[in-house]
Specification:
724 residues, alpha+beta, Ubiquitin-like (UB roll), Four Helix Bundle (Hemerythrin (Met), subunit A), 3 domains, 9-stranded mixed sheet, 7-stranded mixed sheet, 48% helix, globular, binds adenosine-5'-diphosphate, binds magnesium ion
């Protein structure tokens, strides 16, 4: 083992920077070249088929079988022209990553010959033997079938020599087993509700798309060093490791100049992403050493999420070519910042209007205020659900760790918009103010908010940033579909309620603008407690939030409870986004994921302690003992080896603590493992097993500081974070 660390360090020293060349100096020449996009569809499809696919994408209309047949053969023709041999339905099971099962186009015809085939049926639906995907008890083993069904709104693409067709994944009995199916339902619910409300202002609005731009943070470590750390390759994070003397305290990494090897990786990643139609735009160093970020330009939400899933996959593949490993874990290194995935979200109409962009005229402002305040109200009503949607064992390390938003959901608006809402709250809208001119003067002017708004608050989990909301609490490894399903769903529900309230006032004969403002004002008042402009990292905020009645649920097993409570169940059933069976299954899967990951971490800890760390410490201790014996032998007194004795004793001290805590932890694990109920088991893992991690780690890190450097087997933080 000890050899492996030094072999790895040697390997890093001999790395060269691979040359990366742009396929063409103009990005537009190769952007989307691996995607069966609209342009290619137009070339390969009949007019009728092209129109049908377009309608399906824009209006959600069904695609007839005959058309599917045409699309399939067009896709095949295009793919084969690109050297593709296989196709796969590409889907997002609840494992968190993506899944694919490749089939060859080639089919033997029985006479020793054969031909390339791809039918409409094969495009529209597949039946992967899916018994090993998480299903939360929905599929009993005797009914292991699952179906994948084509999602025409996300274009097919080529990865390697395979044509990938984005699909949803459902069980034989129709329950969603993936992340995409519920997202599509929530997005469509939002569309319907938002159009209903938008029509108060503009009858030409027929469609509202949620838009999403995802900023992705990640760490890069050298592949050889990564492979010398079993904790990294088995759990995605370092379970041990003393902090490097230099870390992020000088703040010299953020936006700093990008090291050559990293830059080459980024360029390569960008090229591969652009070829797949992912509009990567931004790259920079992040706060922690070896931490970076990339972000595409925002897109329609379903596509943006597919693209982010694809991006994570690409990062992994491209990194290998550069002898890097990408760490998407939320907290790979204790002591420096973790990684998140900022979800920039808005709503955009078919007329091209961003509903969260303040307008120049009062009428536009009223429309903005309507959507703005409804979003705030939705988050106020369902803050716990949003919290649950970002809960995971790895994100627990980050939320509330004074570097990422706290586990308390609150909304930051910036002083200008806060003032606007305060003004409305205290203004009198009803009563005498029924004449138009008076009303408009009572809608405060909303400044065209500076897009490069300096009024930024990095400590808020949900912040308004000029023309969009930014959910910052999402974990870096997460599939954004989970939180975005919830966000779209709760805003949809809220807008529907809003319309009912406004319509009621209209029926009573109230003027439209007065009716709108009346309900808006009421919502501002009702949702006030969720707004917070101060420092979200401070202890005062935790106290204040508690007074306001906001929840602060720190760990996943408990944060997930809300998914299956009565209020949520009703919301899910009413909107059709999750059936009760589906949400219970999901709850179960999330809990299982939680304790299974902790179980793996606990096992890795035990293994490393017993087989790597204690042996290394003992071996060093033995060499000290030999030394002391020798000094004694040549007749020296104790003052000649006090230091050695001290180290020998300290080593024993920490070895004993580490060993006894591991034994106790294993005991607790055994107890937890026999618990049947998933929630109870997850709580036991959280409270009884995980509670040993800190002590074990603390003492292992002490040993790291005592043992001679050349005897320490695991690459150190300074090497992982600084050597490239
Ligand atoms: P930041 O300053 O927050 O780091 P970035 O430029 O890195 O900003 O990322 C902002 C993200 O927000 C980008 O993906 C951008 O395309 C996206 N964005 C901008 N406008 C909208 C919008 N109307 N809806 C959704 N996302 C948007
Ligand atoms: Mg941002």
């Amino acid at each position: 083992m000890s050899n492996l660390r030094f072999q790895a360090l040697n390997a890093v020293l001999t790395r060269s920077v691979p040359e990366v060349t742009l396929p063409s100096p103009k990005i537009s020449d190769f952007f989307g070249c691996n995607v069966f996009d609209r342009r290619k569809m137009k070339d390969y499809l009949s007019k009728e088929a092209f129109q049908s696919v377009t309608d399906s994408v824009i209006l959600g209309e069904r695609i007839e079988r005959e058309i599917a047949e045409q699309v399939a053969s067009a896709m095949k023709a295009w793919a084969i022209s690109q050297g593709v041999t296989h196709y796969t339905h590409w889907f997002q099971p609840l494992t968190g990553s993506t899944a694919e099962k490749h089939d060859s186009f080639f089919e033997p015809s029985g006479d020793g010959l054969g031909l390339e085939k791809f039918t409409g049926d094969a495009l529209a639906q597949q039946e992967p033997d899916a018994s090993s995907f998480p299903n939360g008890g929905i599929r009993s083993t005797f009914e292991a079938r699952g179906y994948t069904a084509w999602d025409p709104s996300s274009p097919a693409f080529i990865m390697g020599k395979t044509l990938c067709i984005p699909t949803v994944f459902v069980s034989y009995t129709g329950e969603a087993l993936d992340n995409k199916a519920p997202l599509l339902k929530a997005v469509s619910a939002l569309d319907k509700a938002a159009v209903g409300v938008a029509q108060y202002f503009d009858k030409s609005i027929e469609k509202v798309n949620a838009s999403l731009g995802i900023e992705q943070e990640y760490f890069l470590v050298d592949l050889a060093l990564f492979n010398a750390r079993p904790d990294l390759y088995l759990t995605g994070r370092t379970l041990f490791g003393h902090m490097s003397a230099k870390n992020q305290q000088l703040e010299d990494h953020y936006f700093g100049s990008i090291p050559g090897r990293v830059l080459a990786f980024m360029q390569d990643l960008e090229i591969e992403s652009l070829k797949l139609g992912i509009p990567l735009k931004t790259r920079h160093n992040e706060v922690a050493p070896s931490q970076f970020e990339c972000a595409p330009i925002y897109e329609e939400i379903n596509l943006a999420i597919d693209h982010n899933q694809l991006l994570m996959d690409l990062m992994d593949k491209v990194a290998l070519r550069h002898n890097f490993k990408v760490l998407l874990h939320e907290k790979p290194f204790a002591g420096v910042n973790g990684s998140g995935k900022h979800n920039n979200w808005s709503m955009i109409t078919n007329t091209g209007k961003n509903l969260l962009s303040p307008g120049k005229t009062p009428k536009n402002n009223l429309m903005f205020l309507t959507f703005f305040v409804n979003t705030i109200k939705a988050v106020h009503e369902h803050a716990d659900l949003l919290r649950a949607s970002i809960a995971s064992v790895s994100n627990d390390h980050r939320l509330g760790a004074n570097e990422a938003p706290p586990a308390i959901i609150s909304i930051f608006l910036g002083s200008q918009l806060s003032n606007v809402l305060d003004e409305i709250e205290t203004s009198r809208i009803t009563g005498k103010m029924k004449q138009e001119p008076t009303l408009w003067t009572n809608i405060p002017k909303i400044p065209q908010i500076l897009l490069d708004n300096t009024d930024r608050n990095r400590t808020s989990p949900f912040a308004f940033t000029g023309n969009k909301f930014e959910l910052r609490a999402v974990g870096s490894s997460a599939n954004s579909a989970a939180p975005m399903t919830i966000l779209n769903l709760i805003v949809a529900e809220q807008l529907t309620k809003f319309k009912v309230e406004v319509d009621k006032l209209l029926k009573k004969g109230e003027k439209k603008d007065v009716a709108l403002m009346t309900v808006i004002k009421k919502y501002i008042k009702e949702s006030k407690s969720i707004r917070f402009e101060g420092n979200g990292y401070s202890d005062e905020w935790a106290e204040e939030a508690e007074k306001r009645g906001l929840s602060n649920i720190k760990t996943t097993p408990k944060a997930l409870d809300v998914l299956v409570d009565e209020k949520s169940t009703r919301l899910f059933e009413d909107t059709g986004v999750f059936s009760t069976r589906e949400i219970h299954a999901r709850h179960e899967i999330l809990l299982e994921n939680y304790f299974k990951k902790l179980q793996i971490e606990a096992r890795v800890m035990g293994e490393l302690v017993n087989n790597v760390i204690i042996p290394a410490s003992v071996s060093y201790q033995t060499s000290l003992i030999e030394n002391v014996k020798g000094l004694k032998e040549i007749g020296l007194q104790e003052d000649a080896y006090t230091a050695q004795l001290d180290i020998i004793k300290k080593l024993s001290y920490h070895i004993n603590i580490v060993r006894s805590n591991v034994l106790e932890m294993v005991n607790e694990r055994k107890k937890a493992n026999v618990i049947e109920d998933a929630r109870e088991k997850a709580v036991a893992y959280d409270e009884k097993v995980k509670s040993y991690f800190e002590t074990i780690r603390y003492n292992v890190d002490k040993l790291e500081r005592l043992v001679a450097d050349d005897k320490w087997p695991l690459p150190k933080f300074r090497e992982l974070l600084f050597i490239k």
